[in-house]
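TL;DR need structure tokens for one chain.
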Amino acid sequence: MQLRRLSFARFHEGNTVKNSFIRRQGTYLIARWILGGVFVYAGILKMQSPIQFADNIAAYQLLPANTINALALGLPFFELICGLLVLAGVCTRIGTMGLFTMLLVFMGAISIALKRGLSIDCGCFGGHSWIESNLWVALGRNAVLLLLALYIYRQSLFNGEDDEVKSAQSDRLER
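>> reply
TL;DR here they are.
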């Protein structure tokens, strides 16, 4: 009787570990899709209206006028590339660190705008909507996305995803 309990305990323990791994991988995949999808979507919307995005950047009153147009043209492409890297699971750490850095900069800019009392659209999704005109909502959304980026980066370290890319590159260099 004791032997049966022991084997059932092992079976149950093995399924718990396997189910935990599957749940963790599913959560990781969904997190990548959300974070990558948000930035791909935002990048595409900003690419469609670069003049409006430049006006949104100028409203923050943080940058010299001669850098605003370059940023308005370049940032959407950077968002798109980093979002696609995270979505595809290729160079996930690099894409996630790019998104993490952008989120920190965006949160800093929004915080400064809030402290100054500016009534502006955040410019996050390239258009005017109630969610963009409320900087507190934008700051909260960016905080959630920042936590998501941290989770994805941590999981990519745990999964060793980018290590496979590095080993494939080193194999090519050795040839």
